[in-house]
Amino acid sequence: MVGAISKWEVLSHPLITIQCFGWAVFFRAVFAGPNQTFLSLLAKAGLFEHPIKPVPEFIGWCIDLERRAMKVYDSLSRRYSRNELVREFFEHLALQEQDHAELLEICRAAAGRGLWRETCFDRWRATVAETERRLKEVEAILDQRHSIADALRLVIEVESSQLNQLFTGVVEATDPRLARKLQAFRNAVKDHLEYICERIPVLDPNFSEACRALWAEIPKDRLANRN
């Protein structure tokens, strides 16, 4: 099984999978082929077409933001295809954002089964519009000619837009068992920012201070390192 959630995670936490998504999803995961994703198993089980409860529109907005960030990084990876180090950096960021979108889709499936705490997300509602505005600014200049330094500056802009806080807010508002037990949810933001803050200074040391500031802004302990 491929994607943000591995078969190992599902089989290591069978009770969580069954409680959050039902027996049908668990059995599909047990017998899933190597090219299937956990998200595809949820779709086959009808969790998106037939939710038990209305799914908050909010989650869809956050998924869209993650996908737009993925497209920004994918575009930059293709622009710098001749520079192996830079291309690989942006390719990896695009894959991480794809995983984040997939994880939020999984949260959407859980929310459709009633596993959602609306009050946990109230304080993030105003953040969506501001994050979208900053992403639009990045998208508007994406087709312009950029130096590598300009492209790295765009990464700092995207990652400073509270996109990661929104991801964390959605996960925390969903069933807390997912965040506590499944490593993919716990470590998504931490691993993403660690990679950015380790690689950008290698590509351009002038961004070391900006990366330290970015790292300091994120409350990494909220999802990472939970028992």
Structure description:
- There is one protein chain.
- With 227 residues, this protein is mainly alpha-helical.
- It has two domains: 1-50, no CATH class; 54-222, Ferritin.
- The chain contains twelve helices and no strands.
- It has helices at 7-12, 14-21, 23-30, 38-44, 57-79, 84-112, 125-140, 148-159, 163-173, 176-181, 183-203, 208-217.
- α5 (57-79) packs antiparallel against α6 (84-112).
- The longest helix is centred in the middle third of the chain and has 29 residues, at 84-112.
What are its keywords?
227 residues; mainly alpha; Ferritin; 2 domains; 12 helices
Low-confidence stretches: 223-227
Largest sheet: none
Average predicted confidence as pLDDT: 89
What distance lies between the first and last C-alpha atoms, to the nearest angstrom?
A: 25 Å
Taken as a percent bin, the fraction of beta residues is under 5%
Number of continuous helical runs: 12
Count of individual domains: 2
In the CATH hierarchy, the architecture of the largest domain is Up-down Bundle
**Level-1 CATH class name of the largest domain:** Mainly Alpha
Give the fraction of residues assigned to helices. Answer: 55-70%
Structural class: mainly alpha
CATH topology type of the largest domain: Ferritin
Radius of gyration: 18 Å
Give the helices and strands as they follow along the chain: HHHHHHHHHHHH
What's the shape? globular
Tally of strands: 0
Briefly characterize the structure.
69% of the residues lie in helices and 0% in strands. The protein has helices spanning 7-12, 14-21, 23-30, 38-44, 57-79, 84-112, 125-140, 148-159, 163-173, 176-181, 183-203, 208-217.
